[in-house]
Each structure stands twice: as C-alpha cells, then as structure tokens.
Amino acid sequence: MACTSCASDKAGTLNDPKWRRALWIALAINGGMFAVEIVAGITGGSKALQADALDFFGDAANYAISLGVAGMAIAWRARAAMLKGATLALLGFYVLLAAGWGAFHGTVPHAEVMGVVGVAALVANGLVAVMLYRFRTGDANMRSVWICSRNDAIGNIAVVLAAAGVFGTGTAWPDLIVAGLMATLGLWGGFQIIGQARTELRSIGKRHDRSATMSLHPNR
Questions:
Q1: How many CA atoms lie within 13 A of 188 on its CB side?
Q2: Residue 21: its H or E element
Q3: Contact call for residues 9 and 3 (beta carbons, < 8 A)
Q4: pLDDT over threshold 60, residue 217
Q5: Rounded to an integer, what distance in angstroms lies between the CA atom of residue 183 and that of residue 175?
Q6: Which of 67, 92, 149, 177 has a C-alpha 20 to 30 A away from that of 12?
Q7: Is 26 helix (H, G, I), strand (E, B) or coil?
C-alpha cells in the first residue's frame, strides 16, 4: 500500500542514479539475451527457450517503461505496473498455447543447444537479479522489476533441467513441461503485480476523496 512514509514514495529513491543505472544495464542484458534465445529456440526446436526469449523481450520493454516513469507520480508508476503485469500474464497465456501445440506437432529439441543457452541466460539473469535485489520492497513498479528478474532466473534453471531431461529421455516432454511451468510462473507474477498496483491506485483514490471532503468542509 502506498503511503508518504514509504521509501518508494520518495523522489530521491526513484531518481537514484543507482536505480536508473541498474535498469539500463538490465535493459541491455535482456535485449541481448532475447535475440540470442529466440534464434537458439527456433533453430534448436525448444519451446522452453522460445518462452524464455519472449520473457526476455517482455522484461526489456518493462525496464524501458520503468525508466520512463521513474520520476513520475506514484499513480502513473502504478498504472505502468498494471501494464507490465498484464504483459507478463499475456506472455504466460501464449506460452501455454505454444506448449500445447508442441505436444501434438513438435519435434525433439536439441538438448545441447538448450543447455548451453540456458546456462548463459542463467548467468545473465542472476547478475540482473542480484543487482535489483535491493529494490524488491519498493512500490508496485519497482517490485514488478524485481519479480520479473526473479522469475527469469528461476526459469533459466528450469530450462537447464529440461535440457538434461531431453538428453536423458530422448523426448520433447521435459521441454514442454518446463515451458508450461514457466507460463504458470509468468501468470502468477503478472497477477501479483496487477494486485499490488490496484491496491496502490485504490489507496490514492481514497486519499483524494479525503482531501476533497476536507476542502469542502474545512471546519470538520
């Protein structure tokens, strides 16, 4: 819930050069890994890698939005968080559909490609998650950035495990199962972000209502 005593409500926190620098680095890492993973996922036939690539793309866009609203009022930051939460949820739905399609029409992915790219993505997202850890308790917009980086690191571990599963079983099922789990994680994270943003917007609305009442009845 937003309040004037929260660190996330202070302009100094939002305009902190460390916060903005962390977002720029995260944006560059996510943009680069999206390009790597989408190519590797398509050529390697891995739905899990493609799902992770889409997540990288969504996060890169989200970091760009966060940089754009960092100095704005908390209402605009909460609205931006709503947009990011909705994007994350939509990506989750897409991945579920892709995994379902792959269960009937897909081929066995290349485990070696999945493993190498998955480890590289894990290292990249681990760095981002550590860099953003200090901002995990901020407002909905700042928290959404932490949730995205946390989800990515967990997803990368799952991709590496899926690669081992594909290599060991010779089937696509480990890849499809992980893609489905990543989709579920994306949906859950998206709903978390939307929920906190709605709470902040309701809190702002109540404060405005109280202010309007006090201005109409100054002697109360």
A1: 9
A2: helix 17-44
A3: yes
A4: no
A5: 12
A6: 149
A7: helix
Please count the CA atoms within 13 angstroms of the CA of 44 that sit on its side-chain side.
28
Is the model more confident about 114 or about 209?
114
Spatial separation of the C-alpha atoms in residues 150 and 132, rounded to whole Å: 9
Q: Which one, of 122, 94, 109, lies nearest residue 174 by Cα?
A: 109
Q: What is the pTM of this model?
A: 0.65
Residues 134 and 132: their CA atoms lie apart, in Å, by 6
Task: Please give, one letter per residue, the 3-state secondary structure of 140-195.
Answer: HHHHHHHHHHHHHHHHHHHHHHHHHHHHHHCCCHHHHHHHHHHHHHHHHHHHHHHH
Distance of CA 112 to the CA centre of its chain: 26
pLDDT of residue 3: 29
Q: Which tokens sit at 15? A: 């305009």
Report residue 196 as tokens. 């906190």
DSSP state at residue 46:
-
